[in-house]
């Protein structure tokens, strides 16, 4: 019974890991998805929040998951808040920078500006 439970837990962990590391599929403009920090933020997305999850496989409590937002397809004039851990996509400009506790992506991130207000201009 213990072996069956261990196997079940391993399969559940693998499924959770796959769900967090898989690239977003067919996201609508403005959709937010969660992935492990080791996954590169796709083109057209920005990081909007960082956190910790044991399902992403680290032994420390450093930020290892991120929420990413699909910006492709949002109308001109749209304003979004984004973490400074990714560059803004083409057609977007930075209108402000500030500190956000939800955008701390390193264990010793300090209190420097780490987030942006972005505006779609084209």
* Class inferred from helices and paired strands: alpha+beta
| Cα distance spanning the termini | 60 Å
- Mean of residue pLDDT values: 82
Please tell me the total number of domains.
1
**Major beta sheet, strand line-up:** 1-3-2
Cα Rg: 17 Å
Q: Tell me the total number of β-strands.
A: 6
- Low-confidence sequence ranges: 1-21
| SS strand fraction | 25-35%
Rough shape? flat
Q: Helical content, roughly?
A: 10-25%
Largest sheet: 3 strands, antiparallel
User: Could you give the order of the helices and strands?
Assistant: HEEEEEE
What's the number of helices?
A: 1
Structure description:
There is one protein chain. The chain has 122 residues and is of the alpha+beta class. The chain has one domain. It has one helix at residues 2-21; strands spanning 32-36, 45-51, 65-70, 79-83, 92-98, 115-120. The longest helix is centred in the N-terminal third of the chain and has 20 residues, at 2-21. The protein is flat, with a radius of gyration of 17 Å.
């Amino acid at each position: 019974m213990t072996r069956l439970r261990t196997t079940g837990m391993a399969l559940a962990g693998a499924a959770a890991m796959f769900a967090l590391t898989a690239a977003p599929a067919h996201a609508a403009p403005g959709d937010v998805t969660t992935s492990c920090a080791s996954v590169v933020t796709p083109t057209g997305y920005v990081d909007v929040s960082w956190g910790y999850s044991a399902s992403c496989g680290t032994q420390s409590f450093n930020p290892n998951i991120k929420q990413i937002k699909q910006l492709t397809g949002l109308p001109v004039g749209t304003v979004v808040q984004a973490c400074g851990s990714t560059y803004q996509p083409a057609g977007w400009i930075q209108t402000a920078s500030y500190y956000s506790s939800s955008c701390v992506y390193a264990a010793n991130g300090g209190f420097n500006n780490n987030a942006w207000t972005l505006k779609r201009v084209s």
